[in-house]
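Figure-free illustration: sequence to structure, shown twice.
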Amino acid sequence: MFFVAILPYLATWRIRHPAGGGRPSPSARATYMGLAVGTAAIGVVALDALGSPGRVLAAVAAVLISLAVVAVTNAKWGWSNHMAACAAGVAMLLVLFGWPALWATCALPAVAWARLSLGRHVPAELVLGAAVGATVSASVFAALS
């Protein structure tokens, strides 16, 4: 969690919140997503070194690759990185734990509401971000498993 959420959040604060309160530029979004993917990759190496099960490593790698794809494509289409990450995480929890992890889907409307409330995205960008995140992560997980 430190490498996937806390460190990237702290390291990218200034990039994600430009002076004047506007939306970050496409290049700034790609930069902070790249930094987040890089720090998360360090977390994967740490998980591997600590002997994490292969399916867990594959799930984390699938989310990271999903975020990398979203980071690159977000610069052009502007869909929601947050929804992509959330949907990728939910997809991996469902893959790893099955129906007992269905509760994780509660995160999707919460993240969507937050992004709408902040005025960062329109509904279509949220839906597309979630679709890309879930689809890429599930596809990558299937390829790695």
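We now fold a second protein in the same way, so the two outputs can be compared directly.
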Amino acid sequence: MTKKLRLITLTVAILIFTIISSVNAGPTHGWFQKPIRLDYCAGGPNIKINQTTGLTISRVSSREYKAFGYFTYNPTTRAIIETHEVTFDNDGKAYIGQFEEGTRVGTWLTTENGTFHSVASLNEAHEYRATYLGDTPEGNLKVGLEGDRKWCGADYREMVVAFEPTEHAPAGQPLPGIIISVLIGLGITGIARSKKHKKSL
């Protein structure tokens, strides 16, 4: 085998390996090395936390709906661990807290037709009620939820949200460590005042 032929064979082998690895890894949409990524194991797409991070949900668009929220779930049993309703601020954003590595986050939407989850097994007919709609210009994951019971013609536009990993809590939301420090400081001040008051008696 000539040197040129060996080089071509090696190049083809590397290309085939890359394609197979990409297929086996599942859809990543460029988020494999980032704090969050898409996760299709429970139907989804849902969000898998790759690295401990805060998470902000932004409302991209919505139609008439009664409530919207998120939930964390067990990836093996697909049972809900915690569920919360989301209230967006005036800018259409909601910081929903910090999540540990490995956490799975799904979304739910309540309309006049019922409540629909991004985990198929939580819906009455096990329908898939969420889809990936690409990334925002800022590079955040965009997910659409379907709020109708129709089996065909779903457009997943009843609620469109974007997920953004957030390093720090927004201004006005003190971190738990800061809260603890403040409480300790208040406690120490209270003890000092109590001792001073006793000495003056």
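Summary for the second example: The chain is about 25% helix and 35% strand.
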